[in-house]
Amino acid sequence: MELGMIGLGRMGGNMAKRIKQAGHTVVGYDRDPAVSDVGSLEELVQRLNAPRAVWVMVPAGGPTRETVDRLGELLEAGDVVIDGGNSHYQDDQKHAELLAERGIGFVDAGVSGGVWGLQNGYALMVGGGDENVKQLMPIFEALKPEGEYGFVHAGAVGAGHFAKMVHNGIEYGMMQAFAEGWELLEASGVVNNVPETFRSWREGTVIRSWLLDLADRALKEDPELAHLKGYAQDSGEGRWTVQAAVDLAVPLPVITASLFARFASRQDDSPAMKMIAALRNQFGGHAVETLKGADSPGADVAPPQS
């Protein structure tokens, strides 16, 4: 199968490699000419045979909207656009309506796997019509981990990114629990080998998980996380999860508290936030603030336009 991939950064570049390794053809476009196969979106569309499939892997908000708008002008009826970034589900619905006017399909794909996805596969949460999803299954099969898990057609357009939004909210709560436990162990004066304690939990305990494995890895590299500043950004999806809970009157005390804890990290050098920062760097390659680092912005993702 042929696929156009727009955005060949940390995630998009590795996804393109994994798709190629599965025997598919990928034509990539990026603003960086050193990694781009073509010089423009127009050339990317021209290089693909109809019906075309084009995966958008650029920052959510304005960059995604601009890219989808331009593809709407360039693509033809029967083609399909996949938004694999961290877009808000309401933006998906607007994009689908816009493209549908031109006979172009739209699928939203929440993607999890971070910098490890190339090796381990990506978890995919997909929203869209049955026909479009079926058309794209060879690509989804190439990206997902081997076996029965790691892919879901969650529902209609917007369902994929809504599921990914909730996934990230859960992730916030899990990371916060590990971070608070680590801080308490460090402060106890009773446990004098905190890294080994975390390592011992990797087998035989009910809290064993990939996040725990990554916490162990971070503590091997820096046993006291002394080289990190207790500052953790939020991706934006945590905020959206809490807002959706407010809109739907669903209580989310743990996820909400973990989001507010990240806000608190911007005021003080929180020890627990050192672990949050370390975990985000381990699984997603997210930038961290060292003790010598500069100040950083707030959310990585802009809110959707009303």
* Intertermini distance: 36 Å
Along the chain, the helix and strand elements come as EHEHEHEHEHEHEHHHHHH
Q: Major β-sheet, in short?
A: 7 strands, mixed
Q: Flag low-confidence runs.
A: 292-303
**Integer-rounded radius of gyration:** 20 Å
If strands are numbered along the chain, what order do they take across the biggest sheet?
A: 2-1-3-4-5-6-7
Based on helices, strands and strand pairing, what is the structural class?
A: alpha/beta
Helix content: 40-55%
Mean pLDDT across all amino acids: 92
Describe what this molecule looks like in 3D.
- The protein is built from twelve helices and seven strands.
- The protein has helices at 10-21, 41-47, 62-74, 89-100, 117-120, 130-143, 159-188, 194-200, 210-221, 237-248, 253-265, 271-284; strands at residues 2-6, 25-29, 53-56, 80-83, 105-112, 123-127, 151-155.
- It has a seven-stranded mixed β-sheet with strand order 2-1-3-4-5-6-7, sandwiched between helices.
- Strand 3 (53-56), helix 3 (62-74) and strand 4 form a beta-alpha-beta unit.
- Helix 8 packs antiparallel against helix 9 (210-221).
- It starts with a strand and ends in a 22-residue tail after the last helix.
- Mean pLDDT is 92; it is low at 292-303.
Compact summary:
With 306 residues, the protein is α/β, with parallel strands linked by helices. The protein has helices at residues 10-21, 41-47, 62-74, 89-100, 117-120, 130-143, 159-188, 194-200, 210-221, 237-248, 253-265, 271-284; strands at residues 2-6, 25-29, 53-56, 80-83, 105-112, 123-127, 151-155. It has a seven-stranded mixed sheet with strand order 2-1-3-4-5-6-7, sandwiched between helices.
